[in-house]
From TrEMBL:
InterPro entries recorded: Glyas_Bleomycin-R_OHBP_Dase, Glyoxalase_6
Domain of life (superkingdom): Bacteria
Organism: Haloechinothrix aidingensis
Domain Glyoxalase-like residues, every copy: 4-140
The protein, known as: VOC family protein
Lineage of the species this protein comes from: Bacteria, Bacillati, Actinomycetota, Actinomycetes, Pseudonocardiales
């Protein structure tokens, strides 16, 4: 069994590029036999003005789930009911070391267009809640 994570997006390619940087992913390669997505989309007859409807990124190691981004007309309007926790520190490390790793990841995410929402420092864990460029919440921990 495999899994895919799907995001609704106003700009699938831009949001996909953000998540590729955060996760260490890459654009999904085109189907076998095609040297580019445009060549594949030409072969199936998809008009150029409709090619911004979807974008996908994949784990280059092949371990993580595929991330699919699909264009929707409406903006995000409420808090996520599901969010991603991105592990940027080792949970076995001392808390100060984990906080330093998270702080570095927060600044990197901000440089890519994310927004820092709040810090969660509780007995059960530490993370910083962020929003991606389209407002989807995620945690760096």
């Amino acid at each position: 069994m495999s899994m895919q994570i799907t995001f609704d997006a106003n700009d699938p390619r831009a949001l996909g590029a953000f998540w590729a940087e955060i996760l260490g992913y890459r654009e999904q390669p085109p189907p076998e036999g095609f040297d580019s997505w445009d060549a594949f989309l030409d072969s199936v007859g998809l008009p150029a003005d409709e090619r911004d409807r979807a974008y996908a990124i994949t784990d280059p190691e092949g371990h993580g789930p595929r991330v699919f981004l699909q264009k929707v007309p409406e903006p995000k309007s409420a808090k996520n009911r599901v969010h991603l926790d991105v592990n940027v520190s080792n949970h076995a490390d001392p808390l100060d070391d984990r906080k330093a790793a998270v702080a570095t990841a927060v600044e990197r995410a901000r440089s890519l267009g994310a927004t820092r929402l709040r810090e969660v420092d509780e007995v059960i864990g530490y993370c910083v809640v962020m929003a991606d460029p389209e407002g989807n919440e995620f945690c760096l921990q």
